[in-house]
Amino acid sequence: xxxESFFRAPVLVDRIDELSWLxxxxxxxxxxxxxVVLLEGPAGIGKTTVLDELRRRAQVKGWDVRSARGGxxxxxxxxxxxxxxxxxxxxxxxxxxxxxLLSGAASLAEAVFTSVDPTAGGDIAFATLHGLxxxxxxxxxxxxxxxxxxxxxxxxxxxxxxxxxxTLRLDGLPALIAVTAGTGGERHxxxxxxxxxxxxxxxxxxxxxxLPAVATLLRDRLGAQxxxxxxxxxxxxxxxxxxxxxxxxxxxxxxxxxGAVDPSTVARLAPRRVxxxxxxxxxxIDAAAPGFxxxxxxxxxxxxxxxxxxxVGLDPTAAGVLADALAAVAVLERGEPLxxxxxxxxxxxxxxxxxxxxxxxxxxxxxxLAAQGADPTAVAAHLLVSSPSGDQHVVTLLREAAxxxxxxxxxxxxxxLLRRALDEPPxxxxxxxxxxxxxxxxxEIGARDASLHLRLAGxxxxxxxxxxxxxxxxxxxxxxxxxxxxxQIALYERAAVDVGDHDRELALHLEAAKLGALLANPSxxxxxxxxxxxxxxxxxxxAAECLLLSFVARRALAxxxxxxxxxxxxxxxxAHPAMTSHGGHPLWRTNIxxxxxxxxxxxIAEDLLTRAARHAARTGSxxxxxxxxxxxxxxxxxxxxxxxAETDLRAAVxxxxxTPTHFQHTVFPLIDVLIDQGRLDEAAALLTGNxxxxxxxxxxxxxxxxxxxxxxxxxxxxxxxxxxxxxxxLHRLTAxxxxxxxxxxxxxxxxxxxxxxxxxPGARELADAALAAATAAxxxxxxxxxxxxxxxxxxxxEGLDLLHRAVEILADSPSLVWRAEAxxxxxSALRRSGRTTVARxxxxxxxELAHRCGAAGLAERASGELRAAGGRPRRRAGTGVAALTSRxxxxxxxxxxGSSNKEIAQSLFVTLRTVEMHxxxxxxxxxxxxxNELAVxxxx
Length: 940
Known about the structure:
5 strands; about 5% strand
């Protein structure tokens, strides 16, 4: 028996119970109960051997088995583990099968496996994760999938992000994820710990071998029959660790007296220093063997004999002989790529390389791979652990790899590579562009230095076009920070002047950046209004022209004049197709939506935002999806579609990639919707549960938060605190000179609060001011709202007349909740005046309209008033459209439009199981049995 036999034979003795448990995990996952299994234990305990057996059994069952192994070098290789898992299957697939695998949202993952345009826009990082999930789902359509990852502690960060993404969506997927993790330092990586906490895996800890198992191995491998003392000595020396026991058996086998070993000598052979034993075996082969083994350790799991030979200057034939010799002494596995028989063996060889020599070997390895035209990311993994030397070729390779990583959705890997390129360092002429690339990657991952690097890029770039692009990126990155925006205005101005003769479009984008900064800082001497008026005659042909016109529309709205003017400009600004994609300043869509909503052009706004939402869903961008759904939620709320608004706003709140500021200002519109639905306790829980019941900052975006919280407090009868919030918001709105929306709503919300606090003169004065402002704006909604609260303050015929006028003004308004409120207050006033018969029609109309909007609290009030007026409200069961939850309504809405379950899941970033559950519930509540009936049922 050769030494190789001892080291190759898998030790599965004593593993019957563990393998039976894993077999049951396969059966459960195959039935659709996808989950995660963790094999955890110290090095050598048998995790890899058990994982290999799990793979073998899955293949026997007909599963699609995908395997990968983490490694120290692979941590610098973005999506390295994902590529091990999925790339080979894609490359082997026939064209038709490859097209199936990459169909739908899975196409977003193609950038991981192919060279793509690195300038592609959007939230690529999440899009890639979304695409990879659907790639796995497409694989699982034909057969259950087993994904195994050996040595989780060395997985690269992008692959770990995908693993986290996938495990949260395993429900209903016939897939099992099995990973191994050691108990050393790499096991305690924070991101690995977070993954294991989220995944909540079933844990298997392989046990040390028992005495009978050791005796069995002695008999099978040494021919040692019935030697209990020898078995106990071997167990004590190895601790029952299969790898250490195998090392010990190898040492015993190499002795001349292998068949009659004295148990007392075992302790002296115990492989407590495995590294020393491995190195000794290597050095005994040949003088060149240690160098060759080091080459294999440096090149990692993809090492080839030819590459290792080049790395250490050996003849390829001689290198092949060394590879065979190292396999014979159980250091390497046989065949290519060259791999060590165990991570412990590789660690022993790699750890023996002095630091300086190790860095030099990695630098040479990069040269060897680059000369062969290897993947830039594989080359860059070596450069990351080499020493900086001022080599411009190294900078070029790192930048190429960073571009690939960014395009494949691994911006964190790209940032790491670019930081290393900065350390090289680059030539002075390339430094600004490298800073720009780094800042862009850092913005994708939310790194604090993103704005610093983008600003440095803009300030140091010699080429005006490069400078303009960097400054524009800086503006978009910091657009929500008024302080940064204020400080950057001079930079926008200089960059616009410099680039004006070279690229008019970039110059206009910089003018838009300046307007965004002025809009966020209304106290500056240079006014937004004075600057925006300069662009009122632009033809709206290019994206930048349309972007600037959106600011002109905001200016028109801020003047307090007719809202129709702002609405017309907003429609003109929305003409460019980039508005519904990722192009332009983040305020472009916001400006357009605010102006269209103010003009009550809800249908136009919703159509634009729905197209933008579809684009965001196709690109898999949660950040852009959240922003679009936030705007559409605001639009639907104003129109009275409270269920649709709640659906959009909850999806926006749940989205990944939102900054704390954006999260806060997405939560408050949702709170506003819940108030109008009469769900005050839920709204209050959302407020306190997210720590939003304290002080707000001075930033303009916080004004809408104050308004929503004031409305909630007023609805709950907390009038003093509501007064504080609303008065504060009104003062801040006044200070912005109307540049921010909300003044009409704030006045109208504050009037009844003043009345409740006994300040009738103040309430009447504010109501008159609200009516005057609304009349100047020619806004039906605002005029109707002002008339309604004015009517509530007056008694007798005067009050009835004001309320009747409110009903008439709002009769043709698409703002349905406010129309229902006016009808309810008018009907209630009629009932209180004794005119019950006349009161019933407006009260019934208010009740039906409130039900249609999903305003349950308003509907209940109207129903009570109708009964008091002698009417008989229709009884409503817990069925119909009103009974649908927001998520059920959204899924049903998409299904009614013709989307398949898979398309719905992909656009909403949920699993197929989730869609199926929501549809089943919707069918039950709507009393239907098929998709064909959905459209009619949703219309009520």
